[in-house]
Amino acid sequence: MDLTKRFNKNLEKIEISMIRQFDQAISQIPGVLRLTLGEPDFTTPGHVKEAAKEAIDANQSHYTGMSGLLDLRQAASDFVKEKYNLHYNPENEILVTIGATEALSATLTAILEEGDVVLLPAPAYPGYEPIVNLVGAEIVEIDTRSNDFVLTPERLEEAILEQGECLKAVILNYPANPTGVTYSRQEIKDLAAVLAKYEIFVVCDEVYSELTYTGQAHVSLAEFLPEQAIVINGLSKSHAMTGWRLGFIFAPAPLTAQLIKSHQYLVTAAATMVQFAGIEALTVGKNDAEPMKLEYIKRRDYIIERMTKLGFKIIKPDGAFYIFAKIPAAYNQDSFAFLKDFAQKKAVAFIPGVAFGQYGEGYIRLSYAASMETIEEALNRLEEYLEEDAKIAD
After folding, report:
1. Residue 212 gets which letter from DSSP?
2. How confident is the model at residue 14, as a pLDDT?
3. Is 0.90 surpassed by the pTM of this model?
4. What is the phi/psi pair of residue 121, to 5°?
5. DSSP strand E in the chain: where?
6. I need a labelling partner for 262 at 20 to 30 A (CA). Which of 15, 66, 130, 231 fits?
Protein backbone atom coordinates (compact mmCIF):
# COMPACT_ATOMS: atom_id res chain seq x y z
CA MET A 1 0.00 0.00 0.00
CA ASP A 2 1.38 3.41 -0.99
CA LEU A 3 -0.86 6.17 0.32
CA THR A 4 1.54 8.87 -0.91
CA LYS A 5 -0.12 8.45 -4.30
CA ARG A 6 -3.42 9.59 -2.85
CA PHE A 7 -2.38 13.04 -1.66
CA ASN A 8 -3.74 16.19 -3.28
CA LYS A 9 -2.11 16.13 -6.70
CA ASN A 10 -1.37 19.84 -6.44
CA LEU A 11 1.20 19.08 -3.73
CA GLU A 12 3.48 17.92 -6.54
CA LYS A 13 3.76 21.57 -7.60
CA ILE A 14 4.99 22.60 -4.16
CA GLU A 15 8.54 22.28 -2.89
CA ILE A 16 10.15 23.16 0.39
CA SER A 17 11.01 26.87 0.35
CA MET A 18 14.43 27.54 -1.15
CA ILE A 19 15.02 29.87 1.78
CA ARG A 20 14.65 26.86 4.08
CA GLN A 21 16.68 24.67 1.73
CA PHE A 22 19.54 27.14 1.82
CA ASP A 23 19.25 27.52 5.58
CA GLN A 24 19.57 23.74 5.94
CA ALA A 25 22.52 23.67 3.56
CA ILE A 26 24.55 26.00 5.78
CA SER A 27 23.11 25.08 9.19
CA GLN A 28 26.04 22.85 10.13
CA ILE A 29 28.60 25.62 9.72
CA PRO A 30 29.91 26.46 13.21
CA GLY A 31 29.13 30.00 14.38
CA VAL A 32 27.50 31.07 11.10
CA LEU A 33 26.21 34.65 11.09
CA ARG A 34 22.69 34.79 9.66
CA LEU A 35 21.28 37.81 7.89
CA THR A 36 18.56 35.65 6.46
CA LEU A 37 15.09 35.65 7.97
CA GLY A 38 12.71 38.56 8.52
CA GLU A 39 13.08 38.26 12.27
CA PRO A 40 13.50 41.58 14.14
CA ASP A 41 16.28 41.52 16.70
CA PHE A 42 14.17 43.76 18.90
CA THR A 43 12.08 42.26 21.69
CA THR A 44 8.33 42.71 21.99
CA PRO A 45 7.61 45.96 23.91
CA GLY A 46 7.31 45.35 27.65
CA HIS A 47 3.84 46.82 28.00
CA VAL A 48 2.53 44.42 25.35
CA LYS A 49 4.00 41.44 27.19
CA GLU A 50 2.43 42.66 30.44
CA ALA A 51 -0.97 42.84 28.77
CA ALA A 52 -0.68 39.18 27.81
CA LYS A 53 0.39 38.22 31.34
CA GLU A 54 -2.57 40.08 32.80
CA ALA A 55 -4.91 38.27 30.42
CA ILE A 56 -3.51 34.91 31.50
CA ASP A 57 -3.85 35.82 35.18
CA ALA A 58 -7.44 36.90 34.51
CA ASN A 59 -8.13 33.44 33.05
CA GLN A 60 -8.67 34.75 29.53
CA SER A 61 -8.08 31.28 28.17
CA HIS A 62 -11.33 30.44 26.42
CA TYR A 63 -12.38 30.71 22.79
CA THR A 64 -13.13 34.08 21.34
CA GLY A 65 -15.55 34.41 18.45
CA MET A 66 -14.25 33.34 15.04
CA SER A 67 -13.68 36.97 14.02
CA GLY A 68 -11.65 37.69 17.14
CA LEU A 69 -12.30 39.93 20.13
CA LEU A 70 -14.46 42.90 19.22
CA ASP A 71 -12.20 45.17 21.28
CA LEU A 72 -9.23 44.06 19.19
CA ARG A 73 -11.11 44.57 15.95
CA GLN A 74 -12.09 48.04 17.18
CA ALA A 75 -8.46 48.78 18.00
CA ALA A 76 -7.41 47.56 14.54
CA SER A 77 -10.12 49.68 12.92
CA ASP A 78 -8.98 52.78 14.81
CA PHE A 79 -5.34 52.06 14.00
CA VAL A 80 -5.75 51.81 10.22
CA LYS A 81 -8.10 54.79 10.19
CA GLU A 82 -5.58 57.00 11.97
CA LYS A 83 -2.52 55.68 10.18
CA TYR A 84 -3.73 54.97 6.64
CA ASN A 85 -7.13 56.65 6.25
CA LEU A 86 -8.91 53.31 5.93
CA HIS A 87 -12.45 52.78 7.15
CA TYR A 88 -13.51 49.31 8.26
CA ASN A 89 -16.42 48.42 10.49
CA PRO A 90 -15.06 46.28 13.35
CA GLU A 91 -18.35 44.40 13.51
CA ASN A 92 -18.22 42.83 10.07
CA GLU A 93 -15.19 43.98 8.05
CA ILE A 94 -12.20 42.78 10.10
CA LEU A 95 -11.00 39.26 10.89
CA VAL A 96 -8.31 38.46 13.45
CA THR A 97 -5.97 35.76 12.13
CA ILE A 98 -3.00 33.70 13.25
CA GLY A 99 -0.42 35.95 11.65
CA ALA A 100 -0.40 37.38 8.14
CA THR A 101 0.40 33.92 6.78
CA GLU A 102 -2.93 32.48 7.88
CA ALA A 103 -4.63 35.63 6.64
CA LEU A 104 -3.12 34.98 3.21
CA SER A 105 -4.06 31.29 3.29
CA ALA A 106 -7.65 32.04 4.29
CA THR A 107 -7.94 34.72 1.63
CA LEU A 108 -6.37 32.89 -1.30
CA THR A 109 -8.14 29.60 -0.65
CA ALA A 110 -11.44 31.48 -0.44
CA ILE A 111 -11.14 33.45 -3.68
CA LEU A 112 -9.29 31.03 -5.97
CA GLU A 113 -10.42 28.02 -7.97
CA GLU A 114 -8.83 25.50 -10.30
CA GLY A 115 -7.54 27.25 -13.42
CA ASP A 116 -7.51 30.77 -12.00
CA VAL A 117 -4.53 33.07 -12.59
CA VAL A 118 -2.97 35.43 -10.05
CA LEU A 119 -0.63 38.23 -11.08
CA LEU A 120 2.38 38.93 -8.87
CA PRO A 121 5.05 41.63 -9.35
CA ALA A 122 8.43 39.94 -9.09
CA PRO A 123 10.92 39.29 -7.55
CA ALA A 124 8.51 38.39 -4.77
CA TYR A 125 8.08 36.75 -1.40
CA PRO A 126 7.92 32.98 -2.11
CA GLY A 127 5.08 32.25 0.30
CA TYR A 128 2.24 33.12 -2.09
CA GLU A 129 2.78 30.60 -4.87
CA PRO A 130 2.43 27.41 -2.79
CA ILE A 131 -0.98 28.51 -1.47
CA VAL A 132 -2.10 29.44 -4.98
CA ASN A 133 -0.85 26.15 -6.43
CA LEU A 134 -2.49 24.06 -3.72
CA VAL A 135 -5.96 25.08 -4.91
CA GLY A 136 -5.02 24.48 -8.55
CA ALA A 137 -4.52 28.12 -9.52
CA GLU A 138 -1.40 29.63 -11.08
CA ILE A 139 0.92 32.54 -10.35
CA VAL A 140 2.04 34.64 -13.33
CA GLU A 141 4.95 36.91 -12.46
CA ILE A 142 5.36 40.46 -13.72
CA ASP A 143 9.05 41.23 -14.22
CA THR A 144 9.81 44.59 -12.56
CA ARG A 145 13.61 44.58 -12.85
CA SER A 146 13.78 47.11 -15.67
CA ASN A 147 11.98 49.72 -13.56
CA ASP A 148 13.97 49.30 -10.35
CA PHE A 149 11.41 46.79 -9.05
CA VAL A 150 8.52 49.27 -9.25
CA LEU A 151 5.31 48.11 -10.93
CA THR A 152 4.03 50.70 -13.40
CA PRO A 153 0.36 51.16 -14.38
CA GLU A 154 1.26 50.44 -18.00
CA ARG A 155 2.95 47.13 -17.21
CA LEU A 156 0.13 46.17 -14.85
CA GLU A 157 -2.56 46.76 -17.47
CA GLU A 158 -0.57 44.93 -20.11
CA ALA A 159 -0.30 41.90 -17.81
CA ILE A 160 -4.02 42.03 -16.97
CA LEU A 161 -4.99 42.07 -20.63
CA GLU A 162 -2.62 39.21 -21.41
CA GLN A 163 -4.39 36.93 -18.92
CA GLY A 164 -7.96 37.71 -19.92
CA GLU A 165 -10.86 35.96 -18.20
CA CYS A 166 -8.65 33.52 -16.30
CA LEU A 167 -7.36 36.36 -14.13
CA LYS A 168 -8.90 36.29 -10.65
CA ALA A 169 -6.56 38.39 -8.50
CA VAL A 170 -3.47 40.55 -8.23
CA ILE A 171 -1.19 40.36 -5.19
CA LEU A 172 0.57 43.57 -4.22
CA ASN A 173 3.13 43.39 -1.42
CA TYR A 174 4.60 46.71 -0.33
CA PRO A 175 6.83 47.70 1.27
CA ALA A 176 8.09 44.68 -0.60
CA ASN A 177 9.96 41.59 0.42
CA PRO A 178 12.69 41.14 -0.87
CA THR A 179 13.35 44.52 -2.51
CA GLY A 180 12.13 47.01 0.11
CA VAL A 181 10.34 48.95 -2.63
CA THR A 182 7.29 50.96 -1.66
CA TYR A 183 5.01 53.38 -3.49
CA SER A 184 4.08 57.05 -3.28
CA ARG A 185 0.48 58.22 -3.00
CA GLN A 186 0.37 59.10 -6.70
CA GLU A 187 1.86 55.76 -7.73
CA ILE A 188 -0.74 53.88 -5.71
CA LYS A 189 -3.52 56.07 -7.07
CA ASP A 190 -2.38 55.33 -10.63
CA LEU A 191 -2.28 51.57 -10.01
CA ALA A 192 -5.73 51.70 -8.43
CA ALA A 193 -7.12 53.48 -11.49
CA VAL A 194 -6.04 50.55 -13.65
CA LEU A 195 -7.34 47.88 -11.27
CA ALA A 196 -10.71 49.58 -10.88
CA LYS A 197 -11.51 48.79 -14.52
CA TYR A 198 -11.44 45.03 -13.98
CA GLU A 199 -13.56 42.66 -11.90
CA ILE A 200 -10.68 41.14 -9.96
CA PHE A 201 -9.58 40.91 -6.35
CA VAL A 202 -6.56 42.87 -5.17
CA VAL A 203 -4.82 41.19 -2.24
CA CYS A 204 -2.69 43.83 -0.50
CA ASP A 205 0.00 42.34 1.72
CA GLU A 206 0.94 45.40 3.78
CA VAL A 207 2.58 43.70 6.75
CA TYR A 208 5.57 46.10 6.54
CA SER A 209 3.35 49.20 6.45
CA GLU A 210 4.80 50.66 9.66
CA LEU A 211 8.35 50.31 8.36
CA THR A 212 8.59 53.03 5.71
CA TYR A 213 11.53 55.44 5.49
CA THR A 214 10.46 58.14 3.06
CA GLY A 215 9.17 60.49 5.75
CA GLN A 216 5.66 59.92 4.41
CA ALA A 217 3.14 57.51 5.90
CA HIS A 218 2.33 54.27 4.12
CA VAL A 219 -0.42 54.64 1.53
CA SER A 220 -2.77 51.68 1.27
CA LEU A 221 -4.27 50.83 -2.09
CA ALA A 222 -7.53 50.16 -0.22
CA GLU A 223 -7.90 53.91 0.28
CA PHE A 224 -8.57 54.25 -3.44
CA LEU A 225 -10.01 50.80 -4.16
CA PRO A 226 -12.05 49.80 -1.09
CA GLU A 227 -14.51 47.52 -2.91
CA GLN A 228 -11.86 45.28 -4.48
CA ALA A 229 -9.06 45.37 -1.93
CA ILE A 230 -8.44 42.71 0.68
CA VAL A 231 -5.79 44.06 3.04
CA ILE A 232 -3.50 41.73 4.95
CA ASN A 233 -1.56 43.05 7.91
CA GLY A 234 -0.19 41.96 11.28
CA LEU A 235 1.98 42.78 14.27
CA SER A 236 5.04 40.63 13.53
CA LYS A 237 7.13 43.36 11.94
CA SER A 238 5.65 46.52 13.45
CA HIS A 239 5.85 45.34 17.05
CA ALA A 240 8.54 42.63 16.88
CA MET A 241 5.89 40.01 17.58
CA THR A 242 6.78 37.29 15.05
CA GLY A 243 6.23 34.45 17.53
CA TRP A 244 2.91 35.78 18.79
CA ARG A 245 1.24 35.09 15.43
CA LEU A 246 -1.35 37.84 15.21
CA GLY A 247 -2.63 39.19 11.92
CA PHE A 248 -5.68 40.77 10.31
CA ILE A 249 -7.83 40.69 7.20
CA PHE A 250 -9.57 43.95 6.30
CA ALA A 251 -12.25 43.75 3.60
CA PRO A 252 -15.73 45.06 2.73
CA ALA A 253 -18.56 43.29 4.56
CA PRO A 254 -19.73 41.17 1.59
CA LEU A 255 -16.20 39.83 1.09
CA THR A 256 -15.57 39.31 4.80
CA ALA A 257 -18.75 37.25 5.05
CA GLN A 258 -17.17 34.79 2.62
CA LEU A 259 -13.60 34.99 3.93
CA ILE A 260 -14.67 33.98 7.44
CA LYS A 261 -15.75 30.61 6.06
CA SER A 262 -12.22 29.61 5.11
CA HIS A 263 -10.72 31.30 8.16
CA GLN A 264 -12.91 29.51 10.71
CA TYR A 265 -12.18 26.02 9.39
CA LEU A 266 -8.45 26.66 9.19
CA VAL A 267 -7.97 27.85 12.77
CA THR A 268 -11.23 28.64 14.63
CA ALA A 269 -9.64 31.73 16.26
CA ALA A 270 -6.36 33.28 17.33
CA ALA A 271 -5.09 32.63 20.87
CA THR A 272 -7.12 34.67 23.35
CA MET A 273 -4.29 36.04 25.50
CA VAL A 274 -2.42 37.05 22.33
CA GLN A 275 -5.46 39.03 21.23
CA PHE A 276 -5.37 40.99 24.49
CA ALA A 277 -1.70 41.74 23.81
CA GLY A 278 -2.78 42.94 20.36
CA ILE A 279 -5.22 45.43 21.86
CA GLU A 280 -2.37 46.91 23.88
CA ALA A 281 -0.06 47.01 20.86
CA LEU A 282 -2.56 48.83 18.64
CA THR A 283 -3.63 51.37 21.26
CA VAL A 284 -0.96 52.25 23.83
CA GLY A 285 1.73 50.92 21.49
CA LYS A 286 0.45 52.31 18.21
CA ASN A 287 3.78 54.07 17.60
CA ASP A 288 6.07 51.34 18.93
CA ALA A 289 7.69 50.93 15.51
CA GLU A 290 9.19 54.43 15.53
CA PRO A 291 12.40 53.70 17.50
CA MET A 292 12.90 50.51 15.50
CA LYS A 293 12.62 52.49 12.25
CA LEU A 294 15.42 54.83 13.30
CA GLU A 295 17.72 51.90 13.93
CA TYR A 296 16.73 50.17 10.69
CA ILE A 297 17.57 53.31 8.71
CA LYS A 298 21.06 53.40 10.24
CA ARG A 299 21.63 49.77 9.36
CA ARG A 300 20.24 50.16 5.85
CA ASP A 301 22.44 53.13 5.04
CA TYR A 302 25.53 51.44 6.46
CA ILE A 303 24.99 48.33 4.34
CA ILE A 304 24.35 50.33 1.16
CA GLU A 305 27.52 52.35 1.63
CA ARG A 306 29.69 49.31 2.32
CA MET A 307 28.28 47.06 -0.39
CA THR A 308 28.20 49.73 -3.07
CA LYS A 309 31.94 50.20 -2.56
CA LEU A 310 32.32 46.46 -3.07
CA GLY A 311 30.63 46.67 -6.47
CA PHE A 312 27.09 45.61 -5.64
CA LYS A 313 24.26 47.48 -7.33
CA ILE A 314 21.52 48.35 -4.84
CA ILE A 315 18.20 50.12 -5.34
CA LYS A 316 17.77 52.01 -2.09
CA PRO A 317 14.84 50.43 -0.23
CA ASP A 318 12.25 52.78 1.26
CA GLY A 319 10.61 50.19 3.46
CA ALA A 320 10.78 46.78 5.19
CA PHE A 321 14.24 45.66 6.37
CA TYR A 322 15.90 44.01 3.40
CA ILE A 323 18.68 44.86 0.96
CA PHE A 324 18.35 43.23 -2.46
CA ALA A 325 21.75 43.55 -4.09
CA LYS A 326 22.95 42.64 -7.58
CA ILE A 327 26.02 40.41 -7.51
CA PRO A 328 28.95 42.18 -9.26
CA ALA A 329 29.41 40.98 -12.84
CA ALA A 330 32.85 39.52 -12.13
CA TYR A 331 31.45 36.95 -9.71
CA ASN A 332 29.25 33.86 -9.99
CA GLN A 333 25.73 34.95 -10.94
CA ASP A 334 24.27 31.68 -9.65
CA SER A 335 23.08 33.20 -6.38
CA PHE A 336 22.65 29.86 -4.58
CA ALA A 337 26.15 28.68 -5.51
CA PHE A 338 27.68 32.10 -4.77
CA LEU A 339 26.22 32.27 -1.28
CA LYS A 340 26.80 28.63 -0.45
CA ASP A 341 30.51 29.06 -1.23
CA PHE A 342 30.60 32.30 0.75
CA ALA A 343 28.90 30.64 3.72
CA GLN A 344 31.27 27.68 3.69
CA LYS A 345 34.36 29.88 3.52
CA LYS A 346 33.33 32.78 5.76
CA ALA A 347 30.45 31.45 7.92
CA VAL A 348 27.95 34.13 6.85
CA ALA A 349 24.50 33.45 5.45
CA PHE A 350 22.42 35.69 3.17
CA ILE A 351 19.49 34.51 1.03
CA PRO A 352 19.97 33.70 -2.68
CA GLY A 353 17.92 35.92 -4.94
CA VAL A 354 16.62 32.92 -6.88
CA ALA A 355 14.60 32.01 -3.78
CA PHE A 356 12.32 34.89 -4.82
CA GLY A 357 11.67 33.54 -8.29
CA GLN A 358 13.35 33.52 -11.68
CA TYR A 359 13.67 37.31 -11.73
CA GLY A 360 15.66 37.26 -8.50
CA GLU A 361 18.56 35.28 -9.93
CA GLY A 362 21.84 37.18 -9.81
CA TYR A 363 20.83 38.99 -6.62
CA ILE A 364 21.24 38.36 -2.91
CA ARG A 365 19.01 39.43 -0.03
CA LEU A 366 20.33 40.63 3.31
CA SER A 367 18.05 41.20 6.28
CA TYR A 368 19.03 44.18 8.40
CA ALA A 369 16.74 43.04 11.16
CA ALA A 370 19.97 41.90 12.79
CA SER A 371 22.21 43.83 15.18
CA MET A 372 24.67 46.38 13.83
CA GLU A 373 27.48 44.33 15.34
CA THR A 374 26.40 41.29 13.33
CA ILE A 375 26.00 43.35 10.17
CA GLU A 376 29.43 44.92 10.48
CA GLU A 377 31.15 41.57 10.97
CA ALA A 378 29.19 39.97 8.13
CA LEU A 379 30.23 42.71 5.72
CA ASN A 380 33.85 42.51 6.87
CA ARG A 381 33.80 38.84 5.93
CA LEU A 382 32.09 39.60 2.62
CA GLU A 383 34.85 42.07 1.78
CA GLU A 384 37.50 39.48 2.65
CA TYR A 385 35.75 36.85 0.53
CA LEU A 386 35.58 39.09 -2.53
CA GLU A 387 39.23 40.08 -2.18
CA GLU A 388 40.33 36.46 -1.89
CA ASP A 389 38.16 35.45 -4.84
CA ALA A 390 39.67 38.24 -6.94
CA LYS A 391 43.19 37.05 -6.15
CA ILE A 392 42.29 33.51 -7.22
CA ALA A 393 40.89 34.89 -10.48
CA ASP A 394 44.13 36.78 -11.12
Report:
1. B
2. 87
3. yes
4. -60, 135
5. 33-34, 94-97, 117-122, 138-143, 167-173, 201-205, 229-234, 247-250, 313-314, 322-326, 348-349, 351-352, 363-367
6. 15
